[in-house]
UniProtKB/TrEMBL annotation:
Membrane topology of this protein: Multi-pass membrane protein
Segments crossing the lipid bilayer: 20-38, 179-199, 206-224, 230-250, 271-299, 305-328, 367-386, 523-542, 554-575, 587-606, 638-655, 667-691
InterPro entries: MMPL_dom, Mycobact_MmpL, SSD
Pfam families according to UniProt: MMPL
Similarity remark: Belongs to the resistance-nodulation-cell division (RND) (TC 2.A.6) family. MmpL subfamily.
Protein name: Membrane protein
Species this chain originates from: Streptomyces daghestanicus
Presence of the UniProt keyword Nucleotidyltransferase in the record: no
Localization, UniProt: Cell membrane
Transmembrane helix among keywords: yes
Primary subcellular site in the record, as a coarse category: membrane
Domain SSD: 179-328, 525-690
Keyword tags: Cell membrane, Membrane, Transmembrane, Transmembrane helix
């Protein structure tokens, strides 16, 4: 692979006037595609095989008028201060709004607050439930506009109108997070390279790659149901990874220039060495993200595949566009006029770098550093034992948004559980009398402590399927509601035995609980697959048994500590004001799985870039401890810069008002912080110092079985050295220098 990348780097460098316009053409085509194909996103979940999904499927068949799979909206109406909606004037206004809603496009049914009992006991709050004939992803702009026009009409009538439900789209968010991340990345790159030209190349590559990826994902949303947060995750990862990959290659290119190689040759060598590590690192992230599809949840699948696509584009840009742009800059990227005297002294070997000093410190105190790392992360991981999972709902919407106002208003008027009613389906098609079973089920529900109200059963036309609505006393995301769903399912067993019917619990709240439970159950198997993949890949790269085990153990420790921090901040509320967390809630159930997949790839990035330098030194005869310090000399500065850039990009999303985006940003930033600086820069060298030469041991029989992937480009270097040697011999005989011939 290193030889192929070497040739690719030289080719892209030479053909830069073709490569650069080709990428620009791809970007323009992607932008044009967005104008013609811009679909919608969805937060809907389907979970085949669960009781809640089975009940939804039954409702679609037996209650087609209910549109069980259709999108829903809640139009929450509040009277002005001191007034009541039951007054003749306000009642007439509300009924006019309901009439307008029934005429809106794609609406299947609308419940009148006054006839359905959806007016609070105080009389000042009511809501109309709007059910659409199509799923959330198929809501047209006309239908959405009609909903907002009704809200505007109510506001003009002096009523306070807010909208909730999955049919209400999130408002467009600002790009402050991305801009802050880019600004910090630019500053770090300038400090790292000391050159505006060198710092600008990774940023240009990242913008082109992310632009193409996001446009393609938007086009894809016209053909598939795309999760609403898929673009955010792709942007978050694509931006950070693209900058990092370009950073590694540009740094290696500058090194090759300083060693006296011509620009084209330096580009080829940079791609053959650092480019190999980029391909491997990108592959690990893509595999981990694409692996999310095996869990069987469509929303998670689209998020993982969208982010994986962004990583693929980032790798392709780094391998082709970047060497082409290097061709236009030539040797200017090697001139660091903005560097300090200390940095110049470090670059010329007159002063040890910070990485070398840190590596020596760790290797002198391996036991202390090992214990400090393990104990520190272990303490931070303790809150993870209290991890609870949920799915985002309107309670996690941005403060001040119409969804959040609607949720808070309903909670004030009807109680905290009113926004998440439970739907109980009594299926008596193969059993006894449905009315008797429905009566028994209602009695069972009324006997449970956390049930606020139970509405009378509604039957289908055949009279053999009943639908009962129960409103919990607790919020939808609370543990009490989770326990209530379990109690209803347990109490339904007695009804089923006595009547021969099937009783199922569904609704958005129950479905969310089932999804969270499935994701919680899938976390351990997925973690095992990811760790197993890490062991195999690192075994191939480093040809060592102990290094992969050490890397996987460090990865698990950093993930546990990150989950502990998330629980402490978002679930327990520690330092919530510092991080802008408006309200504590269980951790979004998607986050741990996403965290495992993403952090695995990033952890392998740093492991490869740092430890490959150590292995290269060890293979060339350095002692175990000396090899560790050498690896820090070549990789610590670049890895540190890459980690700071990633942390900055991810942390910028803490400024987002949406709880899911905020938690993803904090989780990824914390994970990179722990993995890069505590695990890879501290624990790894400490463990390798204690292991000594045993760290690189590999049984002979296993050595013969494993293919040599040559991520460090060792074979390429030997071939190039032999070629250079053969080139110098005729040059000495002819007394004229001869340019090195292209490889192959």
């Amino acid at each position: 692979m290193a030889t192929f990348l070497y040739r690719l780097g030289r080719l892209a460098f030479r053909r830069r006037r073709l490569v650069l316009p080709a990428w620009i053409a791809v970007l323009v085509a992607a932008v044009i595609g967005v104008s013609g194909f811009s679909g919608s996103t969805t937060d809907d979940f389907t979970l085949p095989g669960t009781q809640s999904q089975q009940a939804i499927d039954l409702l679609e068949k037996e209650f087609p008028q209910a549109s069980a799979a259709g999108a829903t909206a809640r139009v929450v109406i509040e009277a002005p201060g001191g007034q009541k909606l039951t007054s003749p004037a306000h009642k007439q206004e509300v009924e006019a709004l309901v009439a307008d809603l029934r005429k809106a496009p794609q609406v299947a049914s609308v419940t009148d607050p006054f006839t359905a009992g959806l007016v609070s006991s105080s009389g000042n709050i009511a809501y109309a439930q709007v059910t659409y004939a199509v799923p959330q992803a198929d809501i047209t702009p006309a239908a959405s506009d009609a909903l907002h026009q009704v809200a505007d009409k109510g506001e003009k009538a002096s009523l306070k109108i807010s909208l909730g439900g999955n049919a209400v789209l999130e408002e467009e968010q600002s790009n402050a997070a991305e801009l802050i991340g880019l600004l910090v990345a630019a500053f770090v790159l300038v400090v790292t390279f000391g050159s505006l030209v060198a710092a600008g190349l990774p940023l240009v590559s990242a913008v082109v790659g992310v632009g193409i990826a996001l446009c393609a994902i938007t086009v894809a949303s016209s053909f598939v149901d795309m999760a609403s947060n898929a673009q955010t995750l792709a942007l978050m990862l694509g931006l950070a990874v693209a900058i990092d990959y370009a950073l590694f290659i540009v740094s290696r290119y500058r090194t090759e220039l300083r060693e006296g190689h011509a620009p084209e040759e330096a580009a080829g060598r940079a791609l053959g060495t650092a480019g190999s590590a980029v391909v491997f690192a990108g592959l690990t992230v893509v595999i981990a993200l694409a692996g999310l599809s095996v869990i069987g949840i469509a929303m998670l699948t689209t998020m993982g595949l969208a982010a994986a696509f962004a990583i693929i584009v980032a790798v392709l840009v780094a391998l082709t566009l970047l060497p082409a742009t290097l061709g236009f800059t030539g040797t200017r990227v090697a001139h660091g006029r903005l560097t300090t005297r200390r940095v110049r002294a470090e670059q010329h070997g007159r002063r040890p770098t910070m990485g070398v000093r840190w590596g020596r410190f760790v290797t002198r105190h391996p036991w202390r550093m090992l214990l400090a790392s393990v104990v520190g992360l272990g303490v931070l991981a303790i809150p993870a034992l209290s991890l609870r999972l949920t799915l985002p709902d309107d309670s996690m919407a941005a403060p001040g948004s119409t969804q959040r106002v609607a949720y808070d208003t309903l909670s004030k008027g009807f109680g905290p559980g009113f926004s998440g009613p439970l739907t109980i389906v009594v299926d008596a098609r193969d059993g006894d009398d449905a009315k008797t079973a429905a009566t028994a089920t209602s009695a069972m529900l009324k006997g449970l402590d956390d049930v606020a109200t139970v509405r009378p059963p509604v039957f289908n036309e055949a009279g053999d399927v009943a639908l009962i609505t129960a409103v919990p006393s607790s919020p939808p995301t609370s543990q009490e509601t989770v326990d209530l769903v379990g109690d209803i399912r347990e109490g339904s067993d007695a009804v089923e035995k006595d009547s021969g019917t099937q009783v199922m619990v569904t609704g958005t709240t129950a479905l969310n609980i089932d999804v969270s439970a499935k994701l919680g159950e899938a976390m351990v198997p997925y973690l095992a697959v990811v760790v197993g993949l890490a062991l195999v890949l690192l075994l191939l790269v480093f040809r060592s048994v102990l290094i992969p085990i050490k890397a996987a153990a460090g990865f698990l420790l950093s993930v546990a500590a990150t989950l502990g921090v998330l629980v402490a901040v978002f679930q327990w509320g520690w330092l919530k004001n510092v991080f802008g967390v408006d309200e504590t809630a269980p951790i979004v159930s998607l986050l741990p799985i996403l965290l495992i997949g993403v952090v695995f790839g990033l952890a392998m990035d740093y492991e490869v870039f740092l430890v490959s330098g150590m292995r290269e030194a060890y293979v060339h005869g350095a002692g175990p401890t000396e090899a560790i310090v050498t690896g820090f000399r070549h990789g610590a500065r670049v890895v540190t810069a890459a980690a700071v850039i990633m942390i900055s990009v991810f942390a910028g999303f803490l400024l987002d008002d949406i709880a899911l985006v905020k938690s993803i940003g904090m989780g990824l930033a914390t994970a990179v912080l722990f993995d890069a600086f505590v695990i890879r820069m501290t624990l790894v060298p400490a463990v390798m110092t204690l292991l000594g030469a045993r760290a690189w041991a590999l049984p002979r029989w296993l050595d013969r079985l494993l293919p040599n992937v040559d991520v460090e480009g060792e074979k390429l270097r030997r071939v190039l050295a032999e070629r250079d040697h053969q080139t110098r011999i005729p040059a000495q005989n002819d007394q004229e220098p001869t340019a090195p011939a292209p490889l192959g």
